[in-house]
Design goal:
Length: 386
């Protein structure tokens, strides 16, 4: 699959704060990419830079073989869907969708045909004459999607398109957007802070943290092998335990000493594993140097439907969470107060040495500035589009 969008060494600053720090990324033709991260991480600023709504100070953006780094938005080949829909309330659905086609001087008959085709694609046939105020939130978002696709752009940009919708509609549209993207084969970039959206929709996820790319990979790669403690926290659930790796290869987890079955230099940091990665026994297990082994007491149980989240106290200051199936809970008769022995295989463990505290403090200041700038900028663009 060939590269369609190439971003190289992109920098963007707001005053003295760096919003995008040396961003480089290749997006393949027809790929669905999600920019994922919390508010203020730089994902919206990066989307705006790709669209030309925000100009970078350094770096280049090449789309379809053309350097678009200095081009204004109207000269770039993209369609965009905003979180707020940004539909024109005084125009009919048909006129909203055809807005870009009018600017391209497409005749009325061709416009009407294209609107009809697009409404069928987004599963809203026959609503051409309605106005946005007569539609539900989910219907308005589909109309906004049809408008973005009307000019047949090479790149589709989605700025948190589902965040304003209720959970049921969001789940349904999530699959519809993905199906339509695959059918059309259009290269798509979506900004989201919702890990479930990213995991279920994306071919690859770009996890962003403090203006930098923390990790790029498939949903499975990022879930199974988070590159940093930030990614580990942000994607799914992760037990992250303050740890001190000793000279002899052991590890202190608070006051608890354990064997560390993975290679790590003597240091302090965080030792992590997913709640579902642990094997649990209600009787003492044979010592196994190839696994992290701990003993604890069940302190609380949370029924989550398909599984039970089990809180286990390893010591007075250390508690971890495990995810066990309902059938395993019943079979092993695990209840509050039960003593359990926990085994975690080496391949399920992740160790993250401590970050420089001065760097962490500086990154926190950057995040606050970026969040305010990005939110103000997107609000202004949405208002202008309306």
């Amino acid at each position: 699959m060939t590269s369609y969008l190439k971003i190289e060494q992109l920098h963007k600053r707001f005053g003295s704060f760096t919003a995008l720090n040396n961003i480089s990324l290749d997006v393949k033709d027809g790929e669905f990419i999600c920019f994922l991260g919390p508010s203020g991480c730089g994902k919206t600023t990066l989307l705006r830079a790709i669209a030309g709504l925000e100009m970078q100070e350094e770096g280049s953006i090449v789309q379809g073989g053309q350097d678009v780094s200095a081009l204004p938005p109207q000269q770039r080949d993209f369609g965009i869907v905003f979180q707020s829909y940004a539909l024109f309330p005084n125009l009919s659905v048909a006129d909203n969708i055809a807005y870009g086609l009018v600017n391209q001087k497409i005749n009325r008959q061709q416009r009407d045909q294209r609107v009809k085709e697009l409404l069928e694609q987004v599963d809203l046939p026959g609503i051409q004459e309605k106005f946005p105020g007569q539609l539900s939130g989910g219907q308005q978002q589909r109309v906004a999607l049809a408008r973005a696709l009307a000019t047949e752009p090479g790149l589709l940009l989605l700025d948190e398109p589902l965040s304003a919708l209720d959970a049921r509609v969001r789940l349904h549209l999530r699959q519809e957007i993905r199906d339509l993207q695959q059918k059309l084969g259009i290269t798509t970039i979506m900004v989201t802070h919702d890990q479930d959206e990213a995991l279920t929709m994306a071919d690859r996820i770009v996890v962003m943290d403090h203006g930098c790319i923390a990790q790029v990979g498939t949903p499975k790669e990022i879930y199974d092998r988070p590159a940093t403690s930030f990614v580990a926290r942000f994607i799914g659930s992760m037990n992250l335990i303050a740890a001190q790796v000793m000279e002899d290869g052991g590890v202190m987890l608070g006051s608890v000493e354990a064997n560390l079955p993975i290679a790590a230099q003597p240091s302090t940091g965080l030792l992590g594993f997913r709640p579902e990665a642990a094997e649990v026994s209600c009787c003492a297990t044979v010592v196994d140097q190839s696994k992290l082994q701990m003993q604890g007491e069940v302190r609380h149980l949370s029924f989550m439907g398909a599984y039970v989240r089990v809180g286990v106290a390893i010591s007075d200051e250390l508690e971890i969470e495990l995810d066990l199936s309902v059938s395993e809970m019943d079979q092993k008769q695990i209840t509050t107060g039960t003593s359990v022995w926990i085994n975690v295989a080496a391949e399920a463990l992740h160790y993250y040495p401590d970050q420089d505290p001065d760097q962490a403090e500086a990154e926190s200041r950057v995040a606050a500035a970026v969040e305010a700038s990005a939110q103000n900028g997107m609000a202004q663009v949405a208002a202008e589009a309306s």
